[in-house]
Specification:
123 residues, mainly beta, seven-stranded mixed β-sheet, globular
């Protein structure tokens, strides 16, 4: 089971750290993805951490502001978000995959999803 948390309401320029905690299995043996879905829009990839070589990828819209990380001891993955903008407002989802070389930007690669956590950026 994946449990996402850490969402909330912040002003533009603020920061949040989302957490995705796993129970019943070890995140260490999975690739991780973060996606988001804004109101009226399709779910889009935000960032991922591959299983094969721990490489990290970020969408152009968040690169330089967001950072994905994994804490195996806590069995938790994080998405640190800085300099938040109103266009970052969305429900954020974490997901896991066993895939080594799949397209991590494709939601179909993922085997299990967290329930989502809402991030609202507004003045």
């Amino acid at each position: 089971q994946l449990q996402a948390s850490g969402g909330g309401s912040v002003q533009p320029g603020g920061s949040l750290r989302l957490s995705c905690a796993a129970s019943g299995f070890s995140l260490e043996y999975h690739g991780i993805g973060w996606f988001r879905q804004a109101p009226g829009k399709e779910r889009e990839p935000v960032s991922h951490l591959t299983l094969s070589d721990e490489s990290k990828w970020y969408a152009d819209s968040v690169r330089g502001r967001f950072a994905i990380s994994r804490d195996n001891a806590q069995n938790t993955v994080y998405l640190s978000m800085n300099n938040l903008k109103p266009e970052d407002t969305a429900v954020y989802y974490c997901a896991i995959t066993f895939s080594l070389y799949g397209d991590y930007a494709d939601a179909r690669v993922y085997d299990s999803w967290g329930q989502g956590t809402l991030v609202t950026v507004s003045s």
